[in-house]
């Protein structure tokens, strides 16, 4: 039997076991409902830390070490989730036309080392962790289309085929996300624009009039956001101005109908604007640091990011010990997230209402653990068959 193709009987057994595991209710806790405020707290009431270029490993291409802008490295995604409290990721994707898949790395050739070299592999890691830790708060994943994969040259174009850039691969990108996180017959781990918009005419109307879904609806699930604007955002939304049927939200603006998630990467200069947008109900991503201020040990930007109320705060240094000067960025008092300092004013909320470590431990002998293990095994098998990779 080929190492790429499992037997039919194995697949039938695995799928049956997965169905039973997914159908089984979450184990009851002796102390009752661990999250009694899940119906009143919402997605935008959280503040979480995330990593910038979450897959990034230092390049070995440079004998004297990588250039300054490439000189950082992240732990594997599962370690970030388990040990660093990361609840937001950023993945740069390149379309590989030869293999018909998305590669994940920073820059073609010049900065290409990655802890999960393909999008399918990154998503498998996130899904397996989620299935084994069903009480986690919502995880946000920003996906930045970086262009077409070339083995030895730079590309920073839309993920559309040259030379005319007419045939684009946004549908394939959505399909990769759905295949991993909302497969037919499997658990729906993906919160989409359609779900948030509901019966409203636009996403903006839904956010301003109804608000984000309650935390209980988002618990154990993912929100994906297309990072950036311009050509990629316009192409992605072409024909679907309401993002109908799309897997991802977009990095939007208050005057757009798809307004739900926005980027304001300067928490000092945009401080008042961020607080106003958060108070209206939008989800904002900002950056706690650039390499320069972090390596200088300057915490001004980081502190402004926390105080601004931005729900999603991006850093290159999510854990102690990554820099000799002691700089790192983690949510103050979070476990790993905390109640948003702007949007939860007047609400009763503690960090354990968002995610309680006591109810997050994996259960390798229970349904969730079985589902995670089998899902990962089947996912790897499918990925191998699709890519032709032997291991």
Blueprint of the fold:
Layout: H1 8-23, E1 46-51, H2 77-83, E2 88-96, E3 101-104, H3 119-132, E4 139-148, H4 170-181, H5 193-197, H6 203-210, H7 215-218, E5 222-226, H8 230-237, E6 248-250, E7 261-263, H9 271-280, E8 283-287, H10 291-295, H11 300-308, E9 312-315, E10 338-339, H12 351-354, H13 367-387
Parallel strand pairs: 1-9, 2-4, 4-5, 5-6, 7-8, 8-9
Antiparallel strand pairs: 1-10, 2-3
Helix pairs in contact: 1-13, 3-4, 3-13, 9-11
Structural overview:
- Helix 3 (119-132) runs parallel beside helix 4 (170-181).
- The strands form two sheets. This protein has a five-stranded mixed sheet with strand order 7-8-9-1-10. Strands 3-2-4-5-6 form a five-stranded mixed sheet, with helices on one face.
- The chain has 391 residues and is an alpha/beta fold.
- The longest helix has 21 residues, at 367-387.
- The radius of gyration is 21 Å and the shape is globular.
- The protein contains 13 helices and ten strands.
């Amino acid at each position: 039997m080929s190492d790429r193709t499992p037997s039919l009987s194995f697949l039938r057994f695995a799928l049956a076991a997965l169905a039973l595991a997914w159908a089984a209710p979450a184990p009851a806790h002796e102390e009752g409902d661990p999250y009694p405020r899940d119906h009143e707290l919402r997605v935008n009431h959280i503040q979480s830390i995330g990593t910038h270029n979450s897959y990034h490993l230092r390049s070995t291409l440079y004998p004297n070490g990588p250039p300054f802008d490439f000189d950082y490295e992240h732990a594997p995604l599962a370690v970030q989730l388990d040990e660093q409290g990361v609840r937001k990721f950023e993945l740069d994707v390149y379309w590989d036309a030869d293999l018909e898949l998305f590669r994940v790395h920073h820059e073609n050739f010049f900065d290409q080392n990655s802890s999960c070299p393909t999008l399918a592999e990154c998503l498998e890691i996130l899904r397996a962790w989620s299935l084994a830790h069903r009480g986690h708060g919502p995880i946000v994943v920003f996906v930045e289309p970086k262009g077409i994969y070339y083995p030895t040259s730079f590309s920073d174009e839309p993920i559309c085929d040259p030379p005319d850039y007419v045939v684009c691969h946004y549908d394939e990108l959505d399909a990769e996300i759905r295949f991993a996180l909302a497969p037919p017959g499997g658990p729906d781990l993906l919160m989409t624009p359609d779900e948030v918009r509901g019966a409203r005419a636009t996403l903006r109307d839904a956010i301003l009039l109804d608000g984000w879904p309650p935390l209980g609806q988002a618990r154990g699930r993912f929100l994906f956001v297309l990072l950036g604007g311009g050509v990629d955002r316009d192409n992605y939304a072409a024909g679907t101005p309401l993002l109908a049927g799309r897997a991802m939200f977009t990095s939007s603006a208050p005057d757009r109908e798809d307004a739900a998630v926005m980027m304001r990467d300067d928490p000092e200069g945009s401080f008042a604007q961020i607080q106003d947008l958060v108070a209206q109900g939008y989800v904002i991503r900002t950056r706690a640091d650039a390499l320069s201020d972090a390596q200088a040990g300057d915490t001004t930007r980081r502190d402004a990011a926390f105080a601004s109320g931005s729900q999603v705060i991006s850093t290159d240094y999510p854990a102690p010990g990554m820099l000799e000067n002691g700089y790192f960025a983690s949510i103050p008092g979070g476990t790993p997230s905390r109640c948003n300092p702007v949007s939860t004013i007047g609400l009763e909320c503690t960090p354990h209402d968002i995610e309680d470590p006591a109810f997050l431990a994996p259960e390798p002998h229970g349904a969730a653990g079985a589902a995670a293990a089998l899902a990962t095994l089947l996912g790897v098998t499918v990925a191998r068959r699709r890519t032709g990779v032997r291991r």
